[in-house]
Design goal:
This protein is of the alpha/beta class. It folds into 2 domains: 133 residues, NAD(P)-binding Rossmann-like Domain (Rossmann fold), CATH 3.40.50; 116 residues, UDP-galactose 4-epimerase, domain 1 (Alpha-Beta Complex). Helices cover 43% and strands 15% of the residues. The strands form 2 sheets. A 7-stranded parallel beta sheet has the order 3-2-1-4-5-6-8, with helices on both faces. Helix 2 packs across helix 3 and helix 9 packs antiparallel against helix 10. The longest helix has 15 residues. It is globular and about 55 Å long. The termini are far apart.
Length: 281
């Protein structure tokens, strides 16, 4: 069996490769990346594979049995790019595809959902055996804001009292590795989220506890939060999108209590306190 991972030099992809190396020989793994020279430290074969280059994708997928399709980072271009990968996979003889989708993609109010739903439909129509990993939010999406919150004296956002059942990238990577290397997952859709949900006020309280000073949470209107993100250097469109996702979180779009993630990985998901500790180091 040969397993290939797209986006293998990305933050999630690298962690998946490391998990797979614990389970399989390195020569059974292939890293699919835009720039193979950036994958030299992965310790596995690297092949050039650009989501937008169908011919290149087919060559890169030669001899691959199972493919982890990590969703493209190019929001707005995901559907055609993912379709390119699926068509190349069929031509190359790939047997199974595992896709990183979005938590409750079919009912999610988040703007990200539509491209994931369309990709899921394309996967089901492809004739390939498949597993859908509907990943919730990465805890790092929020702990990444801790340095700025410490500098400003407050954590800001637009998530209100919404419950966020996040997990770390390492948790999701471990789940992907389990699904890629064990049987019984064909045709299944997993809703993956952290065991313990929290609010941004909970996050602020945990940060306050660990740093020894009060860092309150300040809930802002969507437009005001977007403007703050823009002022710290994010492109206007991305700032607006992030603020809108926070509003979605206020409506529990990032909440799930099914604990399918911890069942898959055979342990509790990483607690918020541990992710905060790492971010505060």
């Amino acid at each position: 069996m040969t397993i290939a991972v797209t986006g293998a030099t990305g933050q999630l992809g690298r962690l998946v490769i490391e998990q797979l190396k614990r389970k399989l020989a390195a020569d059974e793994l292939v890293a699919l990346v835009r720039s193979p020279e950036k994958a030299a430290d992965l310790g596995v074969a690297a092949r050039q594979a650009d989501y937008s280059q169908p011919g290149q994708l087919q060559t890169a997928l030669a001899g691959v049995d199972t493919l982890l399709l990590i969703s493209s980072s190019e929001v707005g271009q995901r559907v055609p790019q993912h379709q390119n990968v699926l068509e190349a996979a069929k031509l190359a003889g790939v047997r199974r595809v595992v896709y990183t989708s979005l938590l409750h993609a079919d009912t999610s109010p988040l703007s990200l959902a539509a491209e994931h739903v369309q990709t899921e439909a394309a996967i089901k129509a492809s004739g390939l055996s498949y597993t859908l990993l509907r990943n919730g939010w990465y805890t790092e999406n929020y702990t990444g804001a801790i340095p700025g919150a410490l500098a400003a004296g407050a954590l800001v956002g637009s998530a209100g009292n919404g419950r966020i059942a996040s997990a770390t990238r390492a948790d999701y990577a471990e789940a992907a590795a389990v699904v890629l290397t064990t049987s019984g997952h064909e045709g299944k859709t997993y809703e993956l989220a952290g065991d313990q949900a929290w609010t941004l006020a909970d996050l602020a309280a945990e940060v306050s506890r660990q740093v020894g000073r009060e860092i309150p949470y300040q809930n802002l209107p969507e437009a005001e939060y977007a403007k703050i993100l823009e002022n710290v250097g994010l492109p206007q469109a991305l700032a607006a999108a992030i603020a809108s996702w926070d509003v979605g979180a206020s409506e529990d779009a990032l909440f799930d209590d099914g604990k399918q993630l911890s069942v898959l990985i055979g342990r509790p998901t990483t607690p918020l306190s541990e992710a905060v500790r790492v971010a505060c180091q």
